[in-house]
Amino acid sequence: MALGDRIRARREELALTRPQLADRLGVAPSTVSNYETGVSFPKEEVMLRLFDCLETDPNTLFQDSFRAGDQVLTRRERQLLSQYRDLSPLGRESVLAVLEALRAYQTETEAARPAQESRVIPLYRTPAAAGYASPVFGEDLDYLTVGDGVPQAAEFAVRIQGDSMAPWIADGDLVYVNHDPLQAGDVGIFCVDGDIFCKQYYKDPAGTVYLFSLNRARADADVVLTAGSGRTLVCFGRVILHAPPLPGRE
Asked: Is the dihedral of CA 57, 63, 68, 74 positive or negative?
């Protein structure tokens, strides 16, 4: 049933003539006729009076008559409308004045708000790979503009070389890194004796550090540093990644 048909049906249920409804709405009888035949649509202020006069609510009056993209009022919106209808005419005018002031303030605020600045993080040129000889992490960097898809916690990025971390990290992928403390099972960026690696970290009670490849077909690329070996190990940060369990600990 169309909106006009619902208006007419509800008017007849209340035993109201068109002139009577028009008088209550403050419009001409011909205007009510146009509403009911679909020639015209009530303006917002008339629609609010129409709900009162027909003793109904928007969800009932508009049922089955919404166009694509229109929405039914929520419960809270219906409560607010009911409270609005309970106000005196002066109270309603006050509410409308406040709403107009709020809308104008919101429009001015949005217009004055500066465009959000892009977030920029360092992107190190030195690739991290299994056994890849490269200079120590330092000044060899560019700056990368990142969007909403990049974790907010990311402090810098590194490009990965090789397949030792596949399929979680593929050859050529960018990984995002922060300086959170490293826990067992985390993936990190490490410098071992001057070589840069992206590996999964574990340290046993005896002090031996294991740097595992996530791709266990490339276990040959694991790095093991025993306590007292004299080898140098520096962790540059934790890769922001939900890593699989440590090898042998599934």
From this structure: positive
Instruction: Output DSSP code: residue 173.
Output: -
- Cα pseudo-dihedral 80, 86, 88, 90, rounded to 10: 0
Burial (Cβ within 10 Å: 0-12, 13-18, ≥19) of residue 81: middle
List, for residues 121-166, the tens digit of each pLDDT value. Answer: 888 766 554 333 333 444 567 888 888 788 888 988 888 888 999 9
CATH number of 119-239: 2.10.109.10
pLDDT of residue 114: 64
234 touches 190 (CB < 8 A): yes
DSSP letter assigned to residue 133: B
This prediction's pTM = 0.51
Domain residue limits, the chain = 3-112, 119-239
Question: Does residue 230 surpass a pLDDT of 80?
Answer: yes
Please give the C-alpha separations between residue 210 and each of 7, 41, 206, 224, 242, in angstroms, as whole numbers. 76, 74, 12, 5, 18
Question: Which CATH fold would you assign to the domain 3-112?
Answer: 434 Repressor (Amino-terminal Domain) (1.10.260)
Query: Which token pair is 131?
Result: 């056994």
* Number of C-beta neighbours around residue 239 at 10 A: 26
Residue 26: HSE in the Cβ half-sphere, 13 Å Cα cutoff: 7
How far is CA 75 from its chain centroid? Answer: 24
Which of 94, 10, 83, 4 has the alpha carbon at shortest distance from 53? 10
What Å distances lie between residue 107 and 110, 183, 190, CA to CA?
A: 5, 48, 50
